[in-house]
Write a structure and sequence with these properties.
Elements: H1 3-46, E1 50-55, H2 69-81, E2 90-95, E3 109-113, H3 116-125, E4 134-138, H4 142-153, E5 157-163, E6 166-172, E7 178-183, H5 186-190
Antiparallel strand pairs: 1-3, 1-4, 2-3, 5-6, 6-7
């Protein structure tokens, strides 16, 4: 092959390698952006202003046929939590799950507040419900609920809870000290 053709062929190979490198970099950047968007989507889902109000004793929040759950939520907040919810602070609320046929079987109430501030205030005051049998839980995504259940069974985890849909765990270190860890993915669980 003539030196001219060899030089031209070498230039073509060099340009192909450069373009393959750029393509590889673009693909890596795309994967990184998709992961970032996935985290952002999960954060948006988790930061929604929704709460579940469950009744462990099945007597404290009785269910009536034609009840107004917004009124039940406002009354619970005022009487048990000392929080007066202004008009329009609840976007919607309703009972969740299948209607129970047995007497005294009450379903949980799902409520979505207009403002995340209202949800935070109620979650801070939930300690006042400790002896009542009423439980307030954040409405978690399916993934976060599974992560939370796995954490509760993990041997190194002393305690775990959620804050604005994010999972926080107290993990026992090898030196005996506890460390707070934010759990965002299943990979975070596997590294503990």
């Amino acid at each position: 092959m003539s030196p001219y053709k060899q030089n031209k062929l070498d230039n073509l190979h060099q340009r192909i390698e450069q373009r393959e490198g750029k393509l590889f970099d673009l693909e890596r950047k795309k994967v990184t952006q998709l992961r970032s968007l996935n985290y952002t989507l999960k954060d948006v889902e988790n930061n929604c202003c929704k709460l579940q109000i469950a009744d462990n004793d099945l007597e404290n929040i009785p269910e009536a046929h034609d009840e107004v759950t917004n009124y039940i939520v406002k009354k619970l907040a005022a009487v048990k939590l000392d929080i007066n919810l202004p008009k329009g602070s609840i976007d919607w609320s309703h009972r969740v799950g299948q209607r129970l046929r047995s007497p005294g079987g009450n379903r949980a109430i799902m409520v979505k507040f207009v403002s995340s501030r209202t949800k935070v205030d109620i979650m801070k005051a939930k300690r006042k419900l400790k002896a009542t049998g009423i439980v307030l839980r954040e409405d978690l995504t399916k993934d976060n609920l599974a992560h939370l259940r796995n954490l509760r069974e993990h041997t190194k985890v002393n305690n775990c809870w959620t804050v604005d849909g994010r999972i926080v765990a107290l993990v026992r270190e090898s030196n005996g000290m506890d460390r707070k860890v934010n759990i965002r993915t299943g990979r975070d669980l596997s590294t503990m």
